[in-house]
Amino acid sequence: MDREHRCRTGRVWSLVCGLALLTALGGGSRATAQQPTETYPAFEAIWLDGTRKSATAIENWTGDGSQATLAGRKLFASPDYVQSLRNTTLPQRPATGPFIEFVQGDIFSGALVGRIPSADPAAEPVLLVRPEMPVDLRGADRRETISLRADWIRRIVWTRDAREQLRPATVFRRDGSSLEFQRLRYQPDGVQLLTDNQVVHCPWDELAEVHLPAVPWWNLYAREVAALSPDLQSPMIRLTTAAGTRMTTSGARFQLWNRSPQPTLADSHHVIQPAWSHDVLCLRRADVRQYLVTSPVSVPLSVIEPVRSVHQPVFSKLLNHWTRDGSARGGPLLSGGQEFRWGIGVCAGHELDFPLPASATQLTTGLGLDQAAGGGCIRGRVEWASGKSTDDRRVLYETEVLTGRGTNARTCSVELPGPEGDAATLRLIADAVTTDAPSTADPFDIRDFCDWLEPRLVLRPETWQTRVAAAVPASYAALSGWKIDGQLGRDWKPLTQWDAAARPYPAFRHEWVLPGFPVSLTRVLNVPRTGSLRWQIQMHRASRAAGCRLDLSVNQRPIIRQPLAELGGEGPPAPLTIDLAGYAGRQLQMELRLVPLAGETRIVFAGANFEATALPTNP
Predict the structure, then answer these.
(1) Range 264-269 average pLDDT
(2) How high is the pLDDT of residue 446?
(3) pLDDT reading at 253 higher than 80
(4) Dihedral sign, CA of 26, 31, 35, 41?
(5) Cβ atoms of residues 346 and 430 within 8 Å
(6) Do 315-459 and 476-610 fold alike per CATH?
(7) What is the separation, in whole angstroms, between the first and last Cα of the chain?
(8) Residue 390 CA to its chain's centroid (Å)
(9) CA angle (158, 246, 125) in 5-degree steps
(10) So where are the chain's domains?
(11) Residue 111 pLDDT class (50, 70, 90 cuts)
(12) Phi then psi dihedrals of residue 238, to 5 deg
C-alpha cells in the first residue's frame, strides 16, 4: 500500500512539475506579448566606454553615417563607433519561413527558386532567391530574384514554420519524409542528392527544408572578414529587423540612401552587401530594430555555430534547443532588469561546445536567469579543452547558485589557454542545480531559463590578419581558383568604393590597389573539349588610376603584353579574349602579371571565364 501511495505521489508530483513548467512557458509568452503603456524614446545607443544615450530621432544620418548623431554624440565616427543602436519601438520576433539561414547566423527572408547555370563544375553555385521582404529602393522596379552564394548557407526553409533542431546533411520533404545525403548539387529546378545507395532528385515544390552539411565555422568567418574588412579596420555591422531577419555587412559596405533632403524613416534605406550576396540589398531604416557594431577581432559568441549541443532535461525536454540572440522561449534577452543586445538562450541542463581558433585569447560573458520566467535556479560554468584528449578539460569560471528571486546577473572575463590550432573548444554549461538548490527555488529544471549575456571572443589581431589574408582569394567570386603572390597590405590590398551613380542600383565596386610593384595571379585552368573555347578576362584599370600593363602567360609562355584599358562611365570596356581551341581538353597553367607603370594604381578584376558562361555583374 505504501509503495502504491508513493507511486501515485510521484506521478502527481511529476504532473504538478510539468504543469508548472507549462505555466511558466505560457505566462512568459503572455508577458512578452503585453505592450508597454509608457512612452519610450525611439532610439537607444550604447558605446564601448559604457555611455548610454536615448533620443527620439537620429540627426544628420546620410551617406556612410560618419556625421550621424544621437543626443549630440556621433554614432559611426571612426574609431569611436557606437557598439549598439536600437529602435526601442520595434518588438523582437523570431523569423518565419520561407528563409535562408547562413552559417554565421544571418537570415534572409526569401524562397530559393533556382540557380544560375555555370560551365565550371568547380565554381561556387550562385542561387536565385525570391525575396519575401523589401530589398529594393522605394520607387524602383522590384527585383524578382536576388543572387546568393551557396557556400555560406546553413539551411534553407520553404515552409512558414522551421524546425528547432538542426540535422546536418538532411533534406525534409513537405510530405513529412526526410532523407540523409552525402552530397548535394543544386539544379535549376531542384536539388540532386547522393545518398548511401542512390541518386535522388527533389524538385523545389516538394521541399520543406534542406539542412546543409556542417562546415568549419572559422574558415567561413575568415572569408567573411576578408570580403568585408580585409585590413581589420572597418567595423562589422549586424542589422536585425523587427521580422527577425539578420544581415552582416561592414562600414565599407554600409550606406544610407535618402529620397529627400529632409527624409523620414520611411524615405531612408540602408544599402548594404553581405559577403554572401552578389547583389546590393536595400533595407528600410524603419524596419531595422538593432545595429550591432563590433571589431572583426571581437566576435559575438552567438554568431558562432556550436559543434556540440546537448540537453539533459528533467521536465524541459520540449526546450532542448538553443536560441541565437534570444531567450529559450524566443523573446528578447531580459535579465536583471535590462535587455541585452546579443547572447544565447537555453534551458538549464544544456551544454554548448564552440570551436576556438588559434588566435582566440579571451572570453567575456554574462550569465543570468531570464526575468520573464519569474523564477528558476541555475549555476553557470565555462570550460576549455585542447581537443587532444578526452580528459584535459579545464574549468575557467563557475558561478554560485543563481535564483530568479535574487540578483541573478553575473559577468566574467577569462583568459584562454595558449593556441592549440583549431582543435580547442569552449564549453558553456547551464546547470539545473537539482540536488543542492536553495529551499526557495523551483524544484528540478522548472523555470530555469538561462541567458548567456553578450558573450564575445577576442582574437589576437596579428595571427587573425594572417588567416584573413589567406582567405582573400576564396572570398571574392572573381578570384575563385586564383592564387595571388605578395603580401596583403604591402604588395596589394582590396578596396571597396561606393558608386552612388551606378544604375539600376547604386553599387559597391571592388578594386585592387597595387602600391607600385608587379603582382602575379596564377591558376590551373581545365580547358573543355567542346563548346566555346574563347577565354575572356574582365580586367581593367580603375577610373583615373595610373597606368598598368597586363602580361599573360600560358604554361610559362608569354601570350599577351598590353596596357589595361581604363574603366569609364559608359560601362566596362570589352573583355580581353584569347582563343584556347588549340588546348582543348588540356590542363593549363595561367598567369596574369600586373605591372604598374607610374607608381600606385588601382585595378578592377571582374573574373575570367569561357565565353558561354555569364560573369558576375559585381563580383
Answers:
(1) 85
(2) 64
(3) yes
(4) negative
(5) yes
(6) yes
(7) 77
(8) 31
(9) 55
(10) 99-217, 315-459, 476-610
(11) very high
(12) -110, 120
Grid cell, residue 207, equals 521541399
Helices marked H in 394-460 — which ranges?
none
153-171 pLDDT tens trace? 999 999 999 998 899 999 9
CA nearest neighbour of 85 among 294, 303, 293:
293
CATH code: domain 315-459 is: 2.60.120.1060
pLDDT in tens, 426-481: 999 999 887 776 666 666 556 788 999 999 999 999 999 999 999 998 899 889 88
Tens of pLDDT, residues 520-576: 999 999 999 988 899 999 999 999 999 999 999 999 999 999 999 998 767 778 899
C-alpha cell recorded at residue 170:
538532411
pLDDT tens for each residue of 36-91 = 344 456 999 999 999 999 999 999 999 999 999 999 999 998 888 999 999 999 99
The CATH number of 476-610 is 2.60.120.260
Instruction: Let me know: does 446 contact 315? Beta carbons within 8 Å.
Output: yes
Q: How many residues does the chain have?
A: 619
- Give Cα separations from 54 to 61, 285, 539 (angstroms): 16, 17, 48
All 3 cell numbers of residue 425? 573548444
Beta strand extents in 122-272 (DSSP E only): 126-131, 146-149, 153-157, 170-173, 178-180, 183-187, 190-194, 199-203, 207-211, 236-241, 246-250, 254-258, 268-272
> What is the SS3 string spanning 275-301?
CCECCCEEEEHHHEEEEEEECCCEEEH
Taking the C-alpha atoms of residue 609 and residue 616, their distance in angstroms, rounded to an integer, is 10
d(CA 431, CA 163): 25
- What would the DSSP string read from start to end of 476-542? SGGGTT-EE-S-BTTTBEEEEEEETT-SSS-EEEEEEEE-SS-EEEEEEEE--SSS--EEEEEEEEP
Sole residue written with cell 547551464: 430
| Mean pLDDT of all residues in 105-128 | 90
- Residue from 368, 465, 462 nearest 407 by CA: 368
Residue type, 384: W
How much is the CA Rg of the chain, to the nearest whole Å? 27
Residue 566 DSSP label = B
Q: For residues 65 and 59, what is the distance between their CA atoms, to the nearest angstrom? A: 10
Three-state secondary structure call for residue 353:
strand
